[in-house]
């Protein structure tokens, strides 16, 4: 692959022909969708190859440290084909999804209206913002002991921790989304005869929609990462529970599979939310609001 | 028109809104209280003043201003930058409350902002989440106008402003000139009694501006809107205005009120041609002199 140079102009050398120059030009260009996908797959394949090479029999890394890809694939097949720790793999995933979706939606039900209110009415902001400034720096995991005291060890406690983790980004991003609406749009709506309620629903919330969805996406990401941590501490099923158990029994393949599934599902959520934004806010594709 | 001194061709009168006999087609109803032939102005700013309170003390943006716009009249307001033109506009629109004075429409207090007086802003202010059609229909939608009527009026505006091809486009897909056309169509769709324009072409490139100035001039001949139009372009003011009001630098007050008769020989020409005519240049120079002294005074 052509080396990346920091300066913009390609520097022809004596040995580099037209092909090299074309390579460099292609490398500098912003890739199209197809090229982007090709690069992504290529880079993943290279990393997979490096992994396989390093963990090959007699390779640099022993299997106990990092099992080869083949073992991980076998573990995946094993997880999917037979129940593990008393539940099927699907049940484990669903158990995790239950908690994350429940906590995230609950946080949205509270955080979205609250954040919009805080962005729109400055008095609401004066009253509620200080609380969230204090809540924001508390790591969601710090809520686990309190959740256990309040709700015991079980799903409600996990949902609560996820709820707390998702609530702060829901509120903060929704507030920011509404607060950053151009005041001129509000003035224009007012001169066109819109009532305060119509301005809030038809202008403010609709204009803020892409940013509101972005906030929801961040909240979902937070919820997901916190879920796994919550499951490490108090669960009888779920992806985090699988990971913890596998590390205790040194089933490295299973451990890596659970981690990979966590990563893939998180990325899928992120993509899904972006797709949602495109459906609900088709104007945001080109507009940078 | 009787007051126009033909030799000078420039009529200057004091800032107080002396009632004239309207030269436009639509003459407002004569006030029943008032036996004089003076019609009640469509839009009247009575002694409006604005003082902003800041941490460094009060800033007087607008000294008491009186300005009356008759029905069907297009009044241009020019002045040096920072003279409170936009404050004047916000107050006229009902978007800002004056520190003193009042805004009247048809002789009655105007009340808060609403579709009676719509505004075309310099920065277009189109709703990004609405298509061209949705933007134009906005005022009708919030007023609960029935669908058939709404669509008819939107279609009428699309046609009038040459936007039919872009009806389903999003605002960000349009050029600045097209966006401002949408904004004008949106302001007109609710059939306002008064159209307020706040430097509507200030954010456009020179060519687009020229085209839109021509459009406004054309629209004026088609429809007899009452318009208060803020601009920083003297040329635009002379070209479009029935009257040009020159404001002083801060605190803004009305320095001069110049009538520009309808029968000027350059009326009906395109702005590039009109602006080369001797009579046009005379107005322009007169107004420029006033503004220049204001800028120097500051």
Question: What labels describe this entry?
Answer:
heterodimer; A: 289 residues; MetI-like fold; 73% helix; disordered N terminus; B: alpha/beta; Rossmann fold; four-stranded antiparallel sheet; 11 strands
Summed up:
The complex is a heterodimer of chains A (289) and B (298). Chain A is an all-alpha fold.
Question: Which protein chains are joined by the largest interface, and how many residues does each one contribute?
Answer: A-B, 25 and 30 residues
* Architecture per CATH nomenclature, i.e. the level-2 architecture of chain A: Orthogonal Bundle
Provide the CATH superfamily of the largest domain in chain B: P-loop containing nucleotide triphosphate hydrolases
Count of alpha/pi helices of chain A: 11
**Low-pLDDT regions of chain A:** 1-12
CATH architecture of the largest domain in chain B: 3-Layer(aba) Sandwich
Spans of at least 5 consecutive residues with low confidence of chain B? 1-35
Helix-and-strand structural type of chain A: mainly alpha
> Would you tell me which CATH topology of chain A applies?
MetI-like fold
Mean pLDDT of chain B: 83
Q: Would you count the extended β strands of chain A for me?
A: 0
The N- to C-terminal Cα distance of chain B equals: 35 Å
- The sequence of SSEs of chain A as H and E is HHHHHHHHHHH
CATH class wording of chain A: Mainly Alpha
Order of helices and strands of chain B: EEEEHEEEHHHEHEHEEHH
- Topology, number of strands of chain B: 11
Write down the domain tally of chain A.
1
* Content of β-strand of chain A: under 5%
Oligomer: heterodimer
Description:
The complex is a heterodimer of chains A (289) and B (298). Chain A is an all-alpha fold. Chain A has a single domain, classed as Orthogonal Bundle (MetI-like fold). Chain A has helices spanning 18-28, 33-54, 69-81, 89-120, 122-135, 144-151, 155-179, 183-191, 196-233, 239-248, 252-280. The longest helix of chain A has 38 residues, at 196-233. The radius of gyration of chain A is 24 Å and the shape is flat. Chain B is α/β, with parallel strands linked by helices and 298 residues long. Chain B has 2 domains: 40-116 and 192-298, P-loop containing nucleotide triphosphate hydrolases (Rossmann fold), CATH 3.40.50.300; 126-190, no CATH class. Chain B is 32% helix and 22% strand. Chain B has helices at 85-93, 132-142, 147-160, 176-189, 206-222, 234-240, 271-274, 278-297; strands at 11-13, 43-54, 57-69, 74-78, 100-105, 108-109, 117-120, 194-198, 226-230, 243-247, 254-259. In chain B, helix 2 packs across helix 3 and helix 6 (234-240) packs across helix 8. In chain B, 47% of the residues are buried. Classes of the chains: A mainly alpha (289), B alpha/beta (298).
